[in-house]
Structures are given as C-alpha cells and as structure tokens.
Amino acid sequence: MLxxxxxxxxxxxxxxxxxxxxLFLVRLLQPKRRSETDLEPYESGTTPTSFARTRxxxxxxxxxxxxxxxxxxxxxxxxxxxxxxxxxxxxxxIFIEMLTFLGILVVGLIxxxxxxxxxxx
Amino acid sequence: MIDFQIVPADFYLLxxxxxxxxxxxxxxxxxxxxxxxxxxxxWTAFAIFxxxxxxxxxxxxxxxxxxxxxxxxxLFGQFISAxxxxxxxxxxxLGKEYLVSREWHRGEYYxxxxxxxxxxxxxxxxxxxxxxxxxLELLSISLYILVGYFRDRLFSNEAALKYLLxxxxxxxxxxxxxxxxxxxxxxxxxNEIRTMGSPExxxxxxxxxxxxxxxxxxxxxxxxxxxxxPDVYQGAPTPVTGFMATTTKAAAFAAMLRILFYxxxxxxxxxxxxxWFLSAVTMTVGNVIALQQSNLKRMLAxxxxxxxxxxxxxxxxxxxxxxxxxxxxxxxxxxxxxxAFAVVQYFEGKDETRLDxxxxxxxxxxxxxxxxxxxxxxxxLAGFPLTVGFTGKFYIFTTAIxxxxxxxxxxxxxxxxxxxxxxxxxxxxxxxxxxxEEIEFSPMELPAKVALTVCVYAVLHLxxxxxxxxxxxxxxxxxxx
Lengths: 121, 481
Fold this sequence. Notes:
Largest interface: A-B, 12 and 8 residues
Order of helices and strands of chain A: HHH
Number of helices of chain B: 20
Helix content of chain A: 55-70%
Strand content of chain B: under 5%
Largest sheet of chain B: 2 strands, antiparallel
Order of helices and strands of chain B: HHHEEHHHHHHHHHHHHHHHHH
Distance between the termini of chain A: 63 Å
Radius of gyration of chain B: 21 Å
Radius of gyration of chain A: 26 Å
Number of strands of chain B: 2
Largest sheet of chain A: none
Strand content of chain A: under 5%
Number of helices of chain A: 3
Number of strands of chain A: 0
Shape of chain A: flat
Structural class of chain A: mainly alpha
Helix content of chain B: over 70%
Shape of chain B: globular
Strand order of the largest sheet of chain B: 1-2
Oligomer: heterodimer
C-alpha cells in the first residue's frame, strides 16, 4: 500500500536535493563582493524607491470588496458555461437560473452605484 | 447525461424564502428611490414577513423534499420557521422608533433582517449539511452588519468586530466538521447519512460530528464558547439584540436537533454525558455571572446563556418529548425575550445611558402599563407559573425527570432559583424604590405598542393554555425522529 506513494517520495527527494544543490552551488560560485543592494527587496531589477509598507487610502477597501463579488460571479459562470449546452437540451432552467443570479448581482450593483461607492471622492 | 430534474413543486416549497429574498432586495430599492419614507419601509418589511409566514403555514408538511433532497418541508421546519418569521415581524415593528430617535433609520435595517431570516429558514429546512452551512453564513453575515449598525459608535464597532472574528472562527469549525463527515460517509446529505447508518471511518465520524457541535455551540453560546455573547448583545442595537437572542437561538438549536437526531440517530446515547455536562455548566455559569451584572442588557445576555443551558436539557434527554419541550420553550422564549428587550429599548434613552438597575427606580408610578409588562416578562424568564416560562420549563424538566436525569434537574431548579434574584431586582427597582429623576419619555408609537401587546398576550396565552402548542410541538418533532 505504501508502495503507491513511492514516486511521491522520490519526487520529494529530488525537489529537496535540487534545492540543496543549487544553494550550495550559489555559495560556491558567487562573487565574494557584498554591497547594500544585496539586502534590499527584489523589485524586478529596479532599485526600490520607498518602503512597501506605506498607508494607502481606505477607499481601495470598497473597491476590493466590490471586486471580490464580481470576481466570484465570473468563477461561478465558468462551470456554468461548460455544461450550458448539455443542460439546455433538458430545458431552459439553466438559462433562467443564471439570469436570476445575475439579476441579484445587478440589484447589488445598482445599490452600490446609487449609494456612491463607485465615486472616488 | 447529467441526472438533474427540476420540478415546479420544488419552487413552491421554497416560496417563503423567495418572497423574503425578493422583499429584501425591494427594500434596498425603496431605500434608494424613496428615501425618507420610513413608514412605507416599515410596513413593507412587515407585510413581507406576514406574506412569507402565511405562505409557510399554507404549505403541506408531508416531509416532501426538493431540489435533490436539499431542503425538506416538514412540520419541524415549519414550526421553527414560524418562530423566526414572527420574531422578524416583531423586530420590524420595534425597530423604526428606536432607529428614528437615534437618527439612524435606514432601509438596510429591514433588508438585513429579511436576509437573516432567509438564512435561518434555510438552516431550519435544509436537509443537506452544506445548505445548513450556507444558511448559517447568510444569517451570520447579515447579523455582523446589524450588530455594527451604528457605524459611528465605538462599542457597536467593537461588538461587530468581536462577533465577526469569533463567528468566522466558529464557521470554520463547522465547515471543517462537515468536511470530516463527508470524509466518513461520502455525502453531506443528512437523509443519505441516516439511511447509511454506519460510517466508513468511525474516527472521522466522531471528529466531524464534534467539530460540527463546536460550531453550533458557538452560535447558541454554550459555556466554553460563550465569551462573545455579552459584549455583542450589549453593543448591538437593542431590537437587533432581541432578534439575535431569540430567532438565532431557535434556528441554531433547530439545525443542531436536525443534524443530531435526524442525521445521526444512533449516537444520541453516547453523546449524553457530554451534553449533560454542557447543559449543567452553561446554566450555572450564565446564572451566576448574571447575578453580578448592573447593566440590564448584559444581564439579559447572561440570562440568554443560562437559557441555552436549560434548552440543552432537551438535547441531553434525547427523546421526542425532550425535543418537543425545547421547541415549545423556544416559541415562548421568543415572546418573553423580545418583550423584555422592547421595554429595555424604550427606557434606555437616546444615548443608552439608562441601562443600569438604578435608572429603573420608581418607573412604575409614571409608566404603570409598561412596568407591568416588564414585570410579566421578568416573571416569565424566571419561570413563574401562569407564564410561558413556567410551562416551558415544567415540560422540559418533567421529561428529563421521567428519563431519570434527576441530578441535572436538581441543578436546573437551583439555577432557576438563583435567577429569580436578578430578574426580580428589576421589578423591585421599578416598584419599591423612589423615583430618582424626572425624565420624559416620548410616548411609544403604535407599531411598538402592538408588538409589546402581542408579546404580553402570547406569554400569558402560552402560559395558561399551552395545550395546542405542545401538541403541535410534539407532532413537529416526530418529523425528525
């Protein structure tokens, strides 16, 4: 029974071994110069201009919340689209169901809009 | 081919939930486009609750399932759903005046109450652990917002944040338990679990069920998991506190009963010692700490914990009559607690400064009727005869005695005696202490008066003539055994 997991074990050995080898090689081959840049966070090659932990406007919070809702909507629509054709042969229920779901979301959108959550100032 | 059937009867089964959901969205629109028309909002919300209740009661309670056994329409679900909807209706009636006087009247209040009720209906009528979880989440999220309704008040924020963090934690436990149950049975459907009988993995079964119980213990505030309750009850707007204390408790206990008794009928005897302990500790801790409270809202919060302990006796006994007693007590508790909070909200004043016992001194002379109502509710909560508090407790306690739980009932009766002290303290302050300062209260508006009258009447009616409702509760419970 445990034999089934043997490939997994070897995968683990290879992964950790590879990491160890690479770290060791880096130690061996790297130039011995040390500079302050080494201690800075990696920012795709450019030098960072300021700290990452700055305060930013709380308004992003509302945007993020609204984004999550509509993001989940899309996640829900993907599996729906996959089975759409097959289920449409049985009846139009699947179509109406998604319309209902979208309708509920549109209610939320109208609410958010009218309450002024989409305005920046 | 996907095996998927949609029957129109399924939608008929969910009509109350659909009416509530559409109504909640309608109220959001009313807030947007008819801002300021408070009476229309209140009565619309009330009408939606009434329509949903009448639709619910007109349904057949044959035990028919819908949507692939996701929901079940039986008398048990109907009974507790009715409790929830009545509680929601009363809270709507009480809410407007309270919010208007604090200049915080918004349509979202009604909308969130409706959404919370939808969640509770799904919890109560759901036959699948995931539907129950979904209902619980809908309820919880609505309540987090309702608790923090006064955005500009610090204690309201504190209460909402505490409730959110601990509630999310409890939901995590519940979901984890559902995952383990799925691991041991291969399904989350209670009906399939019931017919399957024995799990594939006993360890997973016990871990799963324990975690589910922890999740529900948080929601009904059994003692090791009760810490959030007093702060949340104190910080929430008072009508919301009344709503939470009664309907949420009813829905969470109902879901717990359905999971334990319907889904896992074989395990009841093995749970018994644990439930015995939880019940005894919960009522003792609730009552003893309630003795120390000077704030009325906190006192009622600890009394809510104590009542969760009394109700747990019904689960401990684990028979049909025990569960029927719980159902009846939950119905009675709805009226006595919402009534008590209605009086508290009337007397507490705009800034909620008049919440301690001292500020109730001598109120009986100036407000004889409301004081009388408060006296009735306090007597009912303490369990005096002629009120529903007595009949409910009597019914639960005698069932337990008949099943041989003598010591548990000794503890319960002692606890009831302790509780008399702090309940009657309110009455003593109202009737026997001199008036400290003259304060003019604006007269109670008609909807609140109606709600208070309904509570008074129901407490007396269920106390004097409980027969029909006890029979109903017994019939309801037979649906889950």
